[in-house]
Amino acid sequence: MEAFTFVSVWLHAAWVCGCQPDSKTVSDSDKQAGDTVFFRDGVRRIDFVLSYVDDKDEKKQERRRAFEANLEKIGLQLETEDKSDSKDQKTYFLKIHAPWDVLATYADVLKIKVPFRESDIPHGQDVPLEWLSRPFRLPDDIIRPQCDYFTYPFDKNKTDFFLIEDKDTFFPPSTRNRIVFYILARCPYYAEGRKDREKTGIKRLLSNGTFNAAFPLHDCRYWKKARKDDGESERYNLYKHWARFLCFYKEQPLNLIRKYYGEKIGIYFAWLGFYTEMLFFAAIMGLICFTYGVLSYDDNISSKEICDPEIGGSIVMCPLCDKKCPFWKLNSTCLSSWQSHLFDNEGTVFFAIFMGIWVTLFLEFWKRRQARLEYQWDLVDFEEEQQQLQIRPEFEIKCTKRRINKITQESEPYLPFSSKCARFSLSATTVLLWISLIVACIIGVIAYRLAVYAAFASIIKDPLRKIQLVGRFITPQLATSVTASCINFAIIMILNFFYEKVAVWITDMEIPKTHLEYENKLTMKMFLFQFVNYYSSCFYVAFFKGKFVGYPGAYSYMLGNLTKLRNEECDPGGCLIELTTQLVIVMAGKQLWGNIQEALLPLMRNWWSSRKGRHNPENHYSRWEQDYVLQNFSQLGLFYEYLEMVIQFGFITLFVASFPLAPLLALFNNILEIRVDAWKFTTQFRRPVASKARNIGAWQEILNAVAILSVVTNAFIMAFTSDMIPRMVYLYVLSKDRSMSGYVNSSLSIYNISQIHPQNMPEERWYDNSTTTCRYRDYRNPPGHQREYDHNMQFWHILAAKMAFIIIMEHVVFVVKFFVAWMIPDVPSDVKARIKRERYLIQEYLHNYEVERLKMQLSASFITEKKNVALTFFLI
After folding, report:
1. Percent of the chain having pLDDT more than 90?
2. Worst-scoring range by mean pLDDT, 22-26, 211-215, 314-318?
3. 487 vs 503: CA distance, rounded Å
4. Contact of 399 with 414, CB cutoff 8 Å
5. What does UniProt give as the signal peptide span (predicted)?
6. Mean pLDDT of all residues in the chain?
7. What pLDDT sits at residue 231?
8. How far apart are alpha carbons 315 and 360 in whole angstroms?
């Protein structure tokens, strides 16, 4: 997986280097091709670019003319690049510049915080032994690309209060493109004198083909610094210090990411980096537990007994399926029992408890890290602004009824309660329908497992005899489990495609009011779909497979006797090893497929679109043409990045008791994921519109819910899927010499072959007539007992021990979790003090400013009055 992605990155780098001329040639061609972020006058900055192809459609032409006219009325300045100036001779580019008056007006409307005084609050003290972290640190100008300031929401009537040295550079490019996009999203495209609420916003113009693309420009090419007169080369610095794979051991330049892409993308990479750091400790502990399983390999008495020809070789087991499956010897499961011991040992219990506490520490420490970022990035009071001000254009268009907002006392659109209920009911019904479809697919896979196992058993005469096949050992259980897992993974990928469309459709139908509400609703729906889709097969193997089998005289069948498919038994090595197989295939397959999608697809698409109809090197094209051929970063682009990581988080927490190496695999994947995402954002995508976010949104609540559920699932896995509890009961209750000798015989019940129903009996050519009894995995009374084939006392002892283990483990972990959460405050004390200090200083500065302003007004009024008196006296 890593090699694949690295090769794709290397190929792209090789292609780029191949078309790079020397520095002097590039500089000359830049000037000729217009590789600049300014209008033709070289003064006005390009804040946004719209592109279109004139296909002589009169409706589209009319929409464009009306839209451009309305943009100019608002105050935006436009400049069009004719198609004759573009290299493909087809595309027009409409460049947009927002002058100072427009920026000031909308910065006031959006309450954008801007600096008014340099901060005099000192930074935190230096960390002891800082020299140890020096190899992992980046230059100071990259880590802190700008000074710290006190900020305050912009007020157009108080421009002298803010630090405005140059109006052209006062608002950074990320803020400028955010303001322009806000205007574009609400600007109508109907002609003067007509009103049509549906004809509003750039999103509709993009969807109906009036414009092909709308995007802000990157500030330079990622492999080369911009000229000095073109401003900063932030994209180049991000690529050099962040996006290259060889920087994987370096810290992330979060402040520069935030400055260039906005807080929303910055908070994602901050969370991903912190999650990866915390995975390091879980991976180390999981590796230790796995190493313990390897080192205790020779002390596994149960596996020795199974492999012993005198013990396991003399035990005849009952058939595992009807007709096609023969009686078999227990020692044929020798390899499976040794493999199971690697993951099913005493260390696994400790690791499951550790992961329950690790999850809590991760979430609590992230809250503290998030609070620190909120303060550093000036996001402490942002959510209220988002809720009150940034209403979605779609909500304004579709909701025709209006009412007075109780907070702002202004008229605003609203959705009636009856309409809300109807839309919610339809949405809930659709969600349940699709979840039912997932369950139906899982039942289909289970039916496949039951039917195909018999087919494999008929091919391999001894179903548990190891057969050399393409250099590997294979059994019907392994073949069935692997093929079913692959089929399940393919179904997951197919259903995901449809789920994304359905989730977006029903969320649009609900018409959320704000962007935050829209994202939260979509997040909950998509995660619910993905949760059932990805985890249902693991839940089946962990908690249902092998639990409702019955016994040779009374087997249980899928859907009663309708299907004649006998419920599936666990692998002879136990269900835990099958859960491990399922987890590895789905988790690794998802990560491999995700890396292919993230790295290879954008690379190939950009290569094709940039080479289609072109015959010149990259430097011959203008800045807007270079960005135009890149992939568009959609509004939901970041949503899928979060979803991928949260699904991974579920795999390493919900089922980690079955596979302690899962955090290690996740760690390797995330180290690569950070750099692939960085490379993709920097080189393969257009510059996204900067947007703000103070936290990771609804994902925080989802992580909390997964953390709580993980304690329960791991407790049940250790109790009902693992063989640890039966072993402990035997060791401390039933064993006379306090050893595991005899455990295998104790864990197998006896059945009289003559009592097996003919429909369950193997075909005669596979039947040994000298065998009178067979063994099966259960705790039941033997033939001839007063309560023949009923559960014996050992079963009830083990069941009581399992329930006690679940209760004790859950309570211990939950008590520790809540105690740790109580001990660790969500906001660090120094951050609380800094917030209070900054608010106090801001109020003081505002007070002084207002006093000085009042004095100046009074002084001006007094001087004016004196002049008037003097003039009156003179006239008299």
Report:
1. 23
2. 22-26
3. 24
4. yes
5. 1-19
6. 81
7. 64
8. 47
pLDDT at 7 > cutoff 50:
no
Answer yes or no: are the C-beta atoms of 331 and 307 closer than 8 Å.
yes
CB 751 within 8 Å of CB 783: yes
Which residue in the block uniquely carries the two structure tokens 């003399």?
314
9 or 684, which is more confident: 684
Q: Rounded to whole angstroms, how far apart are CA atoms 872 and 456?
A: 114
Q: What angle (nearest 5°) sits at the alpha carbon of residue 628, between those of residues 627 and 632?
A: 90
* DSSP H or E segment with residue 457: helix 417-459
pLDDT of amino acid 505: 87
CA Rg value for the chain: 34
- Which pair of structure tokens corresponds to residue 718? 């250790």
CA distance readout (Å), 31 to 16, 34, 81, 231: 20, 5, 16, 15
What is the average pLDDT across 61-73? 92
- Spell out the residues 6+ positions from residue 484 whose beta carbon is closer than 8 angstroms to its own: 445, 448, 449, 452
Say whether pLDDT at 442 is over 90: no
Instruction: Locate 757 and state its tokens.
Output: 């129903």
Report DSSP state, residue 789: T
Helix runs in 511-574, H state only: 515-543
Q: Both tokens of residue 719?
A: 């109790």
Buried b (16+ CB within 10 A) or exposed e, 213-233: bbbbbbbbbbebbbeeebbbb
- 65-74, 288-297, 403-412, 858-867: range with lowest mean pLDDT: 403-412
Tokens of 69: 């006219």
DSSP of 740-769: STTHHHHTEEEEEGGGS-GGGSPPGGG--T
Q: How long is the chain?
A: 876
> How many Å apart are CA 328 and CA 321, to the nearest integer?
12
- C-alpha span between 293 and 314 (Å, rounded): 28
- What integer pLDDT is reported at residue 399 of this predicted model? 77
CB 279 within 8 A of CB 667: yes
pLDDT at 395: 77
Whether pLDDT at 362 is above 90: yes
- Phi first, then psi, for residue 713 (nearest 5°) are -65, -40
Is residue 180 very low, low, confident or very high in pLDDT (cuts 50, 70, 90)?
very high
Residue 348 C-alpha from the chain's centroid = 27
Q: What is the distance between the alpha carbons of residues 282 and 661, in angstroms, rounded to a whole number? A: 9
- The model's pTM: 0.85
Residue 242 DSSP class: I
Cα angle value 658/662/668 (rounded, 5°)? 170
**Helix axis angle, 100-109 relative to 173-186, nearest 10°?**
80
Per-position DSSP letters for 805-870, written without gaps between them: HHHHHHHHHHHHHHHHHHHS-SS-HHHHHHHHHHHHHHHHHHHHHHHHHHHHHHHHHHHHHHHHHH
pLDDT surpasses 80 at 363: yes
Tokens representing 575 are 């269900």
Residue 808 has pLDDT above 50, yes or no: yes
Rounded to an integer, what distance in angstroms lies between the CA atom of residue 552 and that of residue 554? 6
Distance CA(495)–CA(488), nearest Å, equals 10
Spatial distance between the Cα atoms of 528 and 532, rounded to a whole number of angstroms: 6
Percent share of the chain, pLDDT over 70:
86
Distance, CA of 111 to CA of 105 (rounded, Å): 10
Q: Which residue has the tokens 């979840």?
A: 435
Alpha helices in 717-828 (DSSP H): 724-729, 743-746, 793-823
β partners of residue 214: 50
